[in-house]
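Field: sequence (string)
Field: structure_tokens (string)

Example rows 1 and 2, in order.
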Amino acid sequence: MNKIILLGHASSGLHEVEALLLSSGMQSARPSKRDNLTPADVVQTLCQAHQCADVNEATTEDDFAPVKAGAIWSGLAMDLMLGNLQQPLWGWADTRNIYWLDYWAELDPHATFVMVYDHPYKALQAMSAQLVDKPLEMEMARLLENWQAYNGAMLSFYSRHTSRCLLVNAGCAREQLQLYLEQLGTQLHGKVPKLDGAALAALETNGKAPLPLQANLALAISEAPEIAAPSITAWFGGDTDLDQHLLQQLLQDHPVALQVFAELEAASTVSNPPVDSSDVHPGTAWLQLIQQRQATADLVMALYEKLQTQLSQLQAQQSQITKLANELDQSKKLLANPPTQVQALPAPKLKELEEESDLLLTQLHQVQEELERYYLENQSLKKNQVKPKATLYGAADRIQQQLTYRLGAILIANSRSLGGWLRMPFALRREVRAYRVDMSKKAHQSLPPIHSYADAYEAECYKQHLSYKLGQAFLKYNKTPWGWFVLPFALASTANNFKKARL
């Protein structure tokens, strides 16, 4: 009996690798024999009993240190293995397995660990929804620290148990699956996973599936011109060149994350092609942004034109109903008080007139039903219509309110005298407290991203101010004792570079 324990950061593509292994012969884990617990239930029980930190909140490698479970907890694992005793090769994936690596390694010497990783910009991309309306720098730093800590702990275990582990780059897993399976086969005892020809052909044909779109958004895109729909779908549902370029630029301010990724690549079980962070040219990203804007404009115009057509049809139906209602009123009046000529008509002719009146009434009801249908469609279109946003200004003020700019301004204001230098630590502390108070007051506010402001270019200008650059340097080096030692030199270097740039 062989089992494969998969783990990886939440943004690593862990479950896609699990799906590849399941298509290659690995079987899903069955519930435990006595308590009917799945592997996820077992891990959840262990985490609760030992008060493990949330895998998405931990920020240091110590937070992910393997937990020492007492002998009392061995029964859970043994019961799970008994439930899968008849399966020659089985396994499961869980990000929380990072806490229980020593636990499984000691209980089963035949257990194999598949560790999945991906580029750090995938972590930012996966958590992009959490970055909206929050202090960007602080939230990005927290996400990357979580990614660094998780993968650092994974590397630490891998270095101690290389013979029992596979380190898998999720971005290359599909293309290099056969090589990974061969490596995996050397570490298993008994059944070796093997991808059959039909499954391999299906994987090559399918490729990576695009991210699913929301139903309303997919419906709106279906109304877009044929030339615009692919660009909009790619924008909302995939990994664009623009995303990669901007995130690679952001990661330049976080060299530790890039260093951890380089270590993962160097230790990877199957050698991967080198990752070139300059693959996406800025001009290509800019051109893609223009294409996406144009495609969005085409979509808005298409929806607007459809709405206008529906309104025109609705007005025509209303006119027809008014006309038929007038004719019906006249017919009712004639039937109630028929003129002398009508009264003189024979009974068959009167019956024919009554039938025509009934037919006219039936047609009126049909038109009314049609009008109601058009009205409901019109209401639905109005509800899904993309509303133009109001023009926003104040990007520069948003930058000035950021902690980076405020701390830099304090550094400049207190650097002009000896007394200012002595007061500087207290002034910086007061400013941080004031910033936190401001953030707590604005916690309920939902501000749009700065790039959506009409004067967003001013924000970039303010980021070139000495205040902003000094604040960046301060926040970068104030987190560790070694950083405090380097901080004065970093601030001086930043000021000198700023002066040289202005000459």
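Row 2 begins here:
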Amino acid sequence: ALLSSLTLLVGVIFRPRIGDYIDTHSGEEAASKAGAFHDVFIFATWVGMIAVVLCFIEWYRQRKPPAFSADTE
């Protein structure tokens, strides 16, 4: 539940900034707006890939057996 809440939080935080970015970096033509949307989708893809990598790292960390020290009896 926490991860899904964080997903929605990112959308709420960045939505106005993304709209400003598209308005600033595009002209009146549809082709230039498509280029600005392309940049936003590439950014979203990179953010998603980082999340996937972090999930795999955590999965690997949880999968390893715990290390036992010689001090325990």
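free_text_note (row 2): The chain has a mean pLDDT of 74.
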